[in-house]
Amino acid sequence: MKKMYLSDSDKIIGGVCGGVAEYFEIDSTLIRLITVVGTVFTGFFAGIIIYIVAMVIVPKKTFF
């Protein structure tokens, strides 16, 4: 079963967009653009809160 993790190698702030891109196997730039456009159109506060919640909820990848 495939799981989503925060990206350690492809991150700018918290690794959420990089992790989503790795999970769906698409370019992280596309995910970042979708995130920015979605945040602008839905109000900055909601998008920022959702990103912060995702940083807290999505686990970091461990190598054990």
Automatic annotation (TrEMBL):
Carries keyword Disulfide bond? no
User: Which keywords accompany this UniProt record?
Assistant: Cell membrane, Membrane, Transmembrane, Transmembrane helix
Cytoplasm in keyword set: no
| Pfam families named in the record | PspC
Q: Name one GO cellular component term.
A: plasma membrane
Which residue ranges run through the membrane? 33-58
Coiled coil: which residue ranges? none
Name the record gives this protein = PspC domain protein
The entry's localization annotation reads: Cell membrane
Q: Where is the Phage shock protein PspC N-terminal domain?
A: 2-61
Annotated membrane topology: Single-pass membrane protein
Tell me the domain of life: Bacteria
